[in-house]
Amino acid sequence: MANIRLVLEFDGSNYAGWQRQPNGLAVQQVVEEGLGRLLGASVTLISSGRTDAGVHARGMVANFHTERILPLAAYREGLNGLLPPDIAVQEATLVADDFHARFDARGKWYRYCLCLNPVRSPLNARYSWQLRANLDVAAMTAAAADLVGVHDFQAFRTSGCAARTTTREIFSIDLLAAEKLLYIDVRGSGFLRNMVRVMSGTLVEIGLGKRPVNDVKRLLLQDQGQAGRTAPPQGLCLMEVWY
Questions:
Q1: SS3 of the chain: helix, strand, coil, percent, to 5
Q2: CA geometry: angle at 223 spanning 159 and 227, to 5°?
Q3: Which of 205, 208, 212, 210 is nearest to 231 (CA)?
Q4: Annotated binding site: which residue ranges?
Q5: 3-state secondary structure of 201
Q6: Are residues 166 and 213 located together in one domain of the fold?
Q7: By C-alpha distance, which of 198, 195, 204 is closest to 175?
């Protein structure tokens, strides 16, 4: 019996998220079906987490156990030959029998991409949230600093979140400008449902002057009021998972 770890990259535009579900095609389903054809047996993937419909990934980690031992290249090149163009295995490695993609994860890096352009940008539309107004990046940076650390992020999750605790640790938040794009890089121990998207939406509202810079502190203290809008899914990408 072998335990194989995969690092997957995918464009989530055409999928109902990572996790298998009855009402839409999920990335997990497509990869499991490809593995089933490759190995001649059904396979269940254990993933490092979930992504919502329309969210992308460069570093989704998943593992599976198999009795059929193949060269590692087969789990990558062979599986990639069975996957659609918008999903690909970047790495395939043999790991310890007790490795668990979810429970062994130590942290994750998410990137939210904003396109700051007064004119519609077709090439960026698939992977960013386009804003046609100027943002106060200095105000956003100051507010983002208040999110770093161990906090109760109850205000920064959406309905349906089944997490037993809403306390999480954010290691860092960096805002990086690249021509007409602004990246919000969030690194943390773990995340609630839509947490990064709600954080990004709140920072955008601060950058637009719709909220004061100190509003993040108020939300973390569970004062009355709601966080900002949930930023659109296409701007979010899971970049890396650490072990």
A1: 25, 30, 45
A2: 45
A3: 205
A4: 110
A5: helix
A6: yes
A7: 204
Mark which of 72, 95, 118 sits at the end of a domain: 95
- State pLDDT tens for residues 105-145: 999 999 999 999 999 999 999 999 999 989 999 999 999 99
> Where is the domain boundary, 73, 95, 117?
95
Extract the annotated binding site for substrate.
110
Q: Minimal CA–CA distance to 241: which of 1, 13, 18?
A: 18
Distance, in Å, from the CA atom of 81 to the CA atom of 172, rounded to the nearest integer, reads 37
Backbone φ and ψ of 182, nearest 5° = -130, 120
Which listed residue (11, 52, 146, 215) is catalytic? 52
d(CA 96, CA 188): 25
CATH code (residue 53) = 3.30.70.580
Coil, strand, or helix at residue 138?
helix
pTM above 0.85, yes or no: yes
Cβ(183)–Cβ(221) under 8 Å? no
152 catalytic? Reply is: no
